[in-house]
Amino acid sequence: MPSPPQTTPEQRAAALAKAAAARRARAEVKELLSTGSLSLADVFDRGATDEFVGGMKIDKVLAALPRLGKVKTKRLLEEHGVAENRRVRSLTERQRRDLLEAVS
Questions:
Q1: 40 near 75, Cβ under 8 Å?
Q2: What is the 3-state secondary structure (H, E, C) of 32-88?
Q3: Cβ neighbours around 82 below 10 Å, total
């Protein structure tokens, strides 16, 4: 089995910084969703251009919404035929529309 590619300390530091920025951005989006400062439609719009938001799993995004927890989110995704591990950027237009209607 081949070994993973060797990275320089600079490459490792850059990767760690990018990962930290992604975690901060995703935590900020979830916080804004939970307070109502950001809507699901806004998240879908930002996901088209922002790689960090686009990479968020849809079940985590929905669970951050007020009145939705893990159980309701799972049920909602099953009703609309969306896999829990789908990312925001990978949702189809129909799935986005259905989820927006369901949480409105």
A1: no
A2: HHHHCCCCHHHHHHHHHHCHHHHCCEHHHHHHCCCCCCHHHHHHHHHHCCCCCCCEH
A3: 21
pTM (predicted TM-score): 0.82
Instruction: Take residue 4 and report the two structure tokens written for it.
Output: 């993973």
Torsion of CA 93, 94, 99, 100, to 10 degrees: 60
Rounded mean pLDDT, 70-92: 91
pLDDT at 4: 75
CA 32, 37, 40: angle at the middle one, nearest 5?
75
